[in-house]
Design goal:
single chain, 177 residues, mainly beta, Immunoglobulin-like, 2 helices
């Protein structure tokens, strides 16, 4: 089976999230006052980021390494890869009142039982550089239902440099953690 490479943007977002989260939150030595889980309803007149749609896979995978091999890594979104569950789609994006960007990720759980999702969203500027990232862990969605999960950026973007939000990872599990 051929080895699948991550797109460059996904690799950058994952690395940035790990770097940013290493010293954040109560477990990493940060202030508990900074550990907010987002806000209530979206306010009127809130700025919106353009949404980068999640794409469906365009071809069936093959097991032929001669035809699947790529020497040049691509920065093209692969939407539908193993890192993004088909249940998750990007919704609206914007900035909350504390200056942090947010993304609303729409989850459609077609399973009959409750599922738990880990979401990773990258907020990037016009040149594709990561401004900040946001994660949501163990977001539960009841069986056969839809739910919108708000993912907030780890750092404020008061100058509003982020121009796009990208769903970089969305994994589904039958149990939390």
């Amino acid at each position: 089976m051929p080895r699948k490479q991550l797109p460059l943007a996904t690799s950058v977002v994952v690395a940035a999230t790990l770097a940013l989260s290493a010293g954040c939150g109560t477990d990493g030595g940060g202030s508990p006052a900074e550990d907010t889980k987002g806000g209530a309803a979206i306010g009127k007149g809130m700025a919106r980021l353009p949404v980068e749609p999640t794409e469906e896979p365009t071809e069936e995978p093959t097991d032929d390494p001669a035809t699947d091999r790529t020497d040049d890594p691509s920065d093209t979104p692969t939407g539908g890869s193993g890192l993004i569950s088909a249940d998750a789609k990007m919704g609206t994006c914007g900035w909350s009142t504390d200056g942090k960007p947010y993304a609303n990720v729409k989850i459609s759980n077609s399973s009959s039982s409750t599922a738990y999702y880990f979401l990773l969203v990258g907020f990037v500027d016009s040149s594709g550089e990561v401004v900040t990232t946001g994660t949501e862990s163990d977001a539960s969605v009841a069986g056969n239902s839809d739910k919108t999960i708000k993912v907030s950026g780890l750092q404020a973007d008061s100058s509003k440099k982020a121009k796009k939000c990208r769903l970089s990872m969305a994994t589904k599990s039958s149990s939390p953690g």
